[in-house]
Amino acid sequence: MKKIQQLCFVSGVALATLATASAAQAALVVVPPYLAPGAQYRLVFVTDGTRDATSFDINDYNTFVTTQARGGTPAIDTALDLALNAAGFNPNTITWKAIASTQTGGSSTGVDARDNTGTNPSSTGVSIYLIDGTPVANNNTDLWDGSILRPINVTQSGATTPTAVVWTGSNASGMVALRYSLC
């Protein structure tokens, strides 16, 4: 049976792991104030931009969210960059990953969002926060149990998108949803 290729647009959701630093806070709260120095955590945002969902290669989506986080190519100082710098982080060393799942196709093997982001519930993980400091999930299991603490609705520029609908190609457990997968 031939599958009909769907063309859609993806507004990415990005995730990165950080450790707290003891520096001043910027407009975006990239270091939640109630964490102990040295505590590890993750930041998440929904992208301002969109892209098509026609690639089977998860790296295309990872590149998209990284480009969004860094302000394009070449990178420009974004509100997120400035906040990360003010908190003692080098934005160029942070790895952003798309919370996205792809199916197998072409020369690419399918990838589940929870594996792409290193948030598989088989490992405990760390707390996840919006880039405004709002808690989203206590750990990996909490992220993928079908009920997060807050919606992922803050963009890399700090804007809130109350009705953000993001096509991730994933089901609630972070695995590829074949009918809705990216590709």
Topology, element by element:
Elements lengths: L8 E2 L2 E7 L20 E7 L4 E2 L5 H13 L8 H8 L10 E2 L14 H4 L11 E3 L4 E3 L2 H4 L40
Descriptive terms for the model:
183 residues; 14% strand; 16% helix; alpha+beta; five-stranded mixed β-sheet; disordered N terminus; 4 helices; two-stranded antiparallel ribbon
What is the CA-atom radius of gyration, in angstroms?
16 Å
SSE topology string: EEEEHHEHEEH
| SSE class | alpha+beta
Q: Tell me the β content.
A: 5-15%
Binned, the helix content reads 10-25%
Strand order of the largest sheet: 5-2-3-6-7
By DSSP (H or I, 4+ residues per run), the number of helices equals: 4
The total domain count is: 1
**What does the average pLDDT come to?**
81
**Poorly predicted residue ranges:** 1-11, 21-26
Please outline the major beta sheet: 5 strands, mixed
Number of strands: 7
Question: Ends: how far apart?
Answer: 17 Å
| Silhouette | globular
InterPro entries: C-type_lectin-like/link_sf
Protein name: Similarity
Keywords: Signal
Signal peptide: 1-26
Verbal overview:
- This protein has one domain (11-180).
- It starts with 8 loop residues before the first strand and ends in a 40-residue tail after the last helix.
- The protein is an alpha+beta fold.
- The protein contains four helices and seven strands.
- The strands form two sheets. It has a five-stranded mixed β-sheet with strand order 5-2-3-6-7. A two-stranded antiparallel ribbon has the order 1-4.
- The model is unreliable at 1-11 and 21-26 (pLDDT under 50).
- Helix content is 16%, strand content 14%.
- Strand 6 (128-130) and strand 7 (135-137) form a beta hairpin.
